[in-house]
């Protein structure tokens, strides 16, 4: 149990004393960038999915 307590104390010390956190404004701009990139990626994947679905529907309708 002492090892676990020591681990948590060392982790807390590392997070609070040794890590340099970016300013809040930088985090906000990074968050917006990740949000926009995720939305663009989701739209592209959705369009690809719709395209493949249409191709497969066409293929299966021709094979009947």
UniProtKB/TrEMBL annotation:
Keywords associated with the record: Cell membrane, Membrane, Protein transport, Translocation, Transmembrane, Transmembrane helix, Transport
Topological type in the membrane: Single-pass membrane protein
Molecular function GO labels: protein transmembrane transporter activity
Subcellular location: Cell membrane; Membrane
A GO biological-process term: protein secretion
The UniProt record lists the keyword Protein transport: yes
GO cellular component: plasma membrane
Chain segments annotated as transmembrane: 32-52
Gene3D superfamilies in the cross-refs: Preprotein translocase secy subunit
Family indicated by similarity: Belongs to the SecE/SEC61-gamma family.
Task of the protein: Essential subunit of the Sec protein translocation channel SecYEG. Clamps together the 2 halves of SecY. May contact the channel plug during translocation.
Oligomer status and interactors: Component of the Sec protein translocase complex. Heterotrimer consisting of SecY, SecE and SecG subunits. The heterotrimers can form oligomers, although 1 heterotrimer is thought to be able to translocate proteins. Interacts with the ribosome. Interacts with SecDF, and other proteins may be involved. Interacts with SecA.
NCBIfam families: secE_bact (TIGR00964)
Protein's name according to its UniProt entry: Protein translocase subunit SecE
Taxonomic placement: Bacteria, Pseudomonadati, Bacteroidota, Cytophagia, Cytophagales
């Amino acid at each position: 149990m002492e090892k676990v307590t020591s681990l948590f104390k060392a982790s807390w010390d590392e997070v609070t004393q040794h890590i340099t956190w970016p300013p809040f404004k930088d985090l906000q701009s990074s968050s917006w960038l990740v949000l926009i990139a995720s939305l663009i990626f989701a739209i592209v994947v959705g369009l690809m999915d719709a395209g493949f679905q249409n191709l497969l529907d066409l293929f299966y309708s021709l094979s009947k």
